[in-house]
Amino acid sequence: MAHAADMSRAGFAAAFKEVIGQSPGNYVTRLRMGHAEDALLRTDATLATISADVGYTNEFAFATAFRRTHGLPPGRWRAAHRPTLQREPAEVAHRDAGPCPDAHRARGALARHIRGPPCAGS
């Protein structure tokens, strides 16, 4: 960021903190964690996928940063903060694909489609 602003790192960090109220590193971490929280609450994406999506090179670095900012590992945070019945399915594209597999129908209320018409035969 400092290079893009044609400033020294120290000068950029000082100016950034004066304007934004926090260091560039803290700002980026908070931004990443906000996106991670959203993904943890709204999707069934794996931690590896979420960590890559928010800019971490591996899920262990992501989990460490998440635990540092939230006090819980991301999986436990997800379980504690996401109501079971409001989870969105990982994929909803199959809703118009015809009959659902028996395993899908057998999952009960959590397997019912949230959007679209019911599966043929259910």
Give an overview of the whole structure.
The protein is mostly helical. The protein has 2 domains: 9-85, Arc Repressor Mutant, subunit A (Orthogonal Bundle); 89-122, no CATH class. The protein contains 6 helices and no strands. The protein has helices at residues 9-20, 24-42, 47-53, 59-70, 74-81, 102-106. It is elongated, with a radius of gyration of 20 Å.
User: Could you state the order of secondary-structure elements as H and E?
Assistant: HHHHHH
CATH superfamily of the largest domain: Homeodomain-like
Q: What is the domain total for the residues?
A: 2
Q: For the terminal residues, how far apart are their CA atoms?
A: 54 Å
| Overall body shape | elongated
Q: Averaged pLDDT, please?
A: 76
Query: What is the number of helical segments per DSSP (H or I, 4+ residues)?
Result: 6
CATH topology-level name of the largest domain? Arc Repressor Mutant, subunit A
How many strands appear in the DSSP assignment?
Answer: 0
Secondary-structure map:
Blueprint: H1 9-20, H2 24-42, H3 47-53, H4 59-70, H5 74-81, H6 102-106
Helix pairs in contact: 3-4
